[in-house]
Amino acid sequence: xxxxxxxxxxxxxxxxxxxxxxxxxxxxxxxxxxxxxxxxxxxxxxxxxxxxxxxxxxxxxxxxxxxxxxxxxxxxxxxxxxxxxxxxxxxxxxxxxxxxxxxxxxxxxxxxxxxxxxxxxxxxxxxxxxxxxxxxxxxxxxxxxxxxxxxxxxxxxxxxxxxxxxxxxxxxxxxxxxxxxxxxxxxxxxxxxxxxxxxxxxxxxxxxxxxxxxxxxxxxxxxxxxxxxxxxxxxxxxxxxxxxxxxxxxxxxxxxx
Amino acid sequence: xxxxxxxxxxxxxxxxxxxxxxxxxxxxxxxxxxxxxxxxxxxxxxxxxxxxxxxxxxxxxxxxxxxxxxxxxxxxxxxxxxxxxxxxxxxxxxxxxxxxxxxxxxxxxxxxxxxxxxxxxxxxxxxxxxxxxxxxxxxxxxxxxxxxxxxxxxxxxxxxxxxxxxxxxxxxxxxxxxxxxxxxxxxxxxxxxxxxxxxxxxxxxxxxxxxxxxxxxxxxxxxxxxxxxxxxxxxxxxxxxxxxxxxxxxxxxxxxxxxxxxxxxxxxxxxxxxxxxxxxxxxxxxxxxxxxxxxxxxxxxxxx
Amino acid sequence: xxxxxxxxxxxxxxxxxxxxxxxxxxxxxxxxxxxxxxxxxxxxxxxxxxxxxxxxxxxxxxxxxxxxxxxxxxxxxxxxxxxxxxxxxxxxxxxxxxxxxxxxxxxxxxxxxxxxxxxxxxxxxxxxxxxxxxxxxxxxxxxxxxxxxxxxxxxxxxxxxxxxxxxxxxxxxxxxxxxxxxxxxxxxxxxxxxxxxxxxxxxxxxxxxxxxxxxxxxxxxxxxxxxxxxxxxxxxxxxxxxxxxxxxxxxxxxxxxxxxxxxxxxxxxxxxxxxxxxxxxxxxxxxxxxxxxxxxxxxxxxxxxxxxxxxxxxxxxxxxxxxxxx
Amino acid sequence: xxxxxxxxxxxxxxxxxxxxxxxxxxxxxxxxxxxxxxxxxxxxxxxxxxxxxxxxxxxxxxxxxxxxxxxxxxxxxxxxxxxxxxxxxxxxxxxxxxxxxxxxxxxxxxxxxxxxxxxxxxxxxxxxxxxxxxxxxxxxxxxxxxxxxxxxxxxxxxxxxxxxxxxxxxxxxxxxxxxxxxxxxxxxxxxxxxxxxxxxxxxxxxxxxxxxxxxxxxxxxxxxxxxxxxxxxxxxxxxxxxxxxxxxxxxxxxxxxxxxxxxxxxxxxxxxxxxxxxxxxxxxxxx
Lengths: 257, 304, 326, 287
Prior knowledge:
Chain A is of the alpha/beta class. Chain A has nine helices and ten strands. Chain A has helices spanning 47-54, 77-84, 104-116, 120-134, 150-162, 180-197, 208-214, 232-237, 242-255, and strands at 5-14, 22-31, 36-40, 62-67, 70-71, 87-90, 168-172, 200-205, 217-222, 225-231. In chain A, helix 3 runs parallel beside helix 5 (150-162), helix 4 crosses helix 5 and helix 5 (150-162) runs parallel beside helix 6 (180-197). In chain B, 80% of the residues lie in helices and 0% in strands. Chain B contains 13 helices and no strands. The chains are: A alpha/beta, B mainly alpha, C alpha/beta, D mainly alpha. At the B-D interface, helix 1, helix 6, helix 7, helix 10 and helix 11 of B face helix 3, helix 4, helix 7, helix 8 and helix 9 of D.
């Protein structure tokens, strides 16, 4: 089977300021269709950069980024758009991912128009369908992003991502800014989508407990290097790398009641 | 800073400006020397001056001369432009320095006071004054000062003479407009700084309000204020031209306005270059001070 | 035990919006009290009103705060200032944010000590070194010679704790002290704060949204929702035996690090559209509410030994759940 | 229910905006209202103090000062408008281009900006005006040549920061083309601070233009321009102070009104203020 997202020998060095200078060294990663892959690491480990690399919002210095077998590292314009039809992404701060000047409905229908080329009336129907899918009401359409709660806004972001009918959804710390009970509801929504439309999920987070609670496979990042990867159950039962152990102990310490 | 490309850019632009000006330098030279202009003589002089050569060659030759300190002869006075500028320069620098000091002496306490008393009567009063200062054109301030201080009260001479008495009114004029601008910006900077979390942290540690203001907030505000000074140096140097003309203060600005009246191109050219270099040097200085004060930049430099 | 801090019916308003709606809380000497709740529940406001540093526009509209029996509202500016730092310390969320970025750490220690006592620089540095040592920070001299931006977030937070502790205050107020840190640093900070309590018997009032942090640290736990404490009790009884539906939801939403699923997965949301108001703060979100919850505001009632809850239907959900065997 | 006028900043904006409009209309119809021909010299009536026939007195050529001050308004106001309009458009266009596309375009324009910024503003304007010769159009050109850099810098830095915003990333993921992103997201989100800068600039530009005229590098006699009038009158300061008082006050008041207008625009477009609006209207966020 062909991987939906594959990173091959990807390298990227960042040096914009002294605190965030780090590099991602020859990174390999494969995510199969329908799979839920979790990536954990502490701040500065390069997780977010991987999310941006995977969607070519950041260009890699070296290596290949294959989406459904096609390298998007050098791609532009149409080819990139084609890739975005397969891989979509949601961000940690969902408010910042919406243009404050546009109503939520307009943002969603823009994506629909760009990808599906629907007419206006069909578009409205599609927006309704998406909203229902993510558990939002019709009235949310006519609100501005800042008029939504954190959870609602993240749902809207998911709806917009789904408008492209992707096979893989990259979640970059998508629940970290939310309160636990809201976070829990978003996770439940993601699980539902995974079951109903077979959506693959690439879940990036600093919270090992959260990631391990619903991912199939797991990768652990440290200073731009993937130190351990494997099936979630295996890693949780028997972590090999000392850093994974340390992370697990700390997470257990914090999260276990 | 990319000093070399900027200096090259300055000279290219200045030269281009001359090149594009509507009148013929050769003709100007002849008329200024009182030689009757005929096409033969003109042609000869043009050749002599290298005006028939291609643009780049002309620029190159001109540049070499500039580096040697030869900026040509002023049409107006017949003296070398270099000497002319050098003898007027100290007046402009003195005027600029004194106005800047005056501005800071006035604007710093007013701006800080305005911020500390935010939205109180003192604040409104200071803001009102600063607004007046900002909306008053320099030449108007100058004329009003002359009218009241010199003509009505006979305190100071109308025309400036070199010396303390002479420089007082021009520098007050320059400082008035700048103070208006500075008070506003210093107020904004201090207000913003007081919102930062470290101020809350200091309060939570029971540090005295006055200590927070003088030793923490003000010190950190200085960084923004220095940047501000760097940015406003340009408008101040430009402003000297008007003030010097009104008060007949023998600085570079007065010189160039006279030169423009005479269509004295070499002098104008020299003035532009000198002012630009002066400005770049002053900016470099503020940049240096900034680096010296801010440990974040200073230490990063040392590491690198 | 003697009471250090007593809060009675505290109401705080920001402009016209009431953020705290009647808080009653007692803190004993050497006790660690944890406050949990989501953002906007009023935890930070409570802490800031105790130390007298409410953001502009915020003011206490009713009730009082007694510190060692003295009403804080009656203190003059100067009296309150000398109280802060000397007898009350505070730790902020943003590590390093509470430190001046352009001053060396050592100078900031000196500044803090000198604000309360006449000391020389050397003496205050010595004191600072001692405090850093009790926080397990080796290399204290280097830290004192550093600027905040030269250190990691975890380090900065530990320095901030040392700064708050430098005068050995009777109480430290900590507003989300671990939320901005990586898990490994979180663990250290929690351990060290506990050790400081044991060593100096400082009371700690800790606000956080992280139940895990509460579980590790607190003796007593207050659960906040909508500007009220909806449940209060000992750490164990709150975590093991929650009565309020909100507490239950909070606890069941925590992902377990062992890779098991959420406790609350099978619970469904229920949303209400029309509210009459004036009733329970949790009414619109609550799953076990009854009609009277909309208009009837429950009091904090004793449900168990050292355990109080503010709910008309307290404990109902629990019996349901034990039926389904969750 | 909050209304538009609940906020004092908005009331101020409306008041000063109205004042500006009135000023503009007035300056346009002034030539029809004035009692005398502003250009008509009458040496017999030179330097008459303010009187019934000549409300502001006459100048050394015996021209009616009142008529000259009133008709001069249009020159000052509209040349400043044109100047700000030109530098705003050119500067913003170049800034957005440089910021969004980066690379060689950016380097090219930013080097030019660096060089122009290395000249003290007025110095270059004086030199250019001196080269081009006098005239209000030349003065506008001279100042425009150096002042567009401010807008280029500002819009470039705005675009650079907006470009990295998540909603731009999201729009790109949403399949929008570069042109669409610039037109629908980048420009609308960066225009606010630029408009603020422009409205704060009107007064300043008015003063610069008048300054050039005052130096004899702007408007040419006998044009009724305030800076020029002050220059012509300054030698008569002792004997005929009205030559200073009236054009000077007109200048000051006009600049002040436009500065107040600029301030009020800043107040309502200020991001902090915008946020407070969001907070007051979007209280749902925390509910």
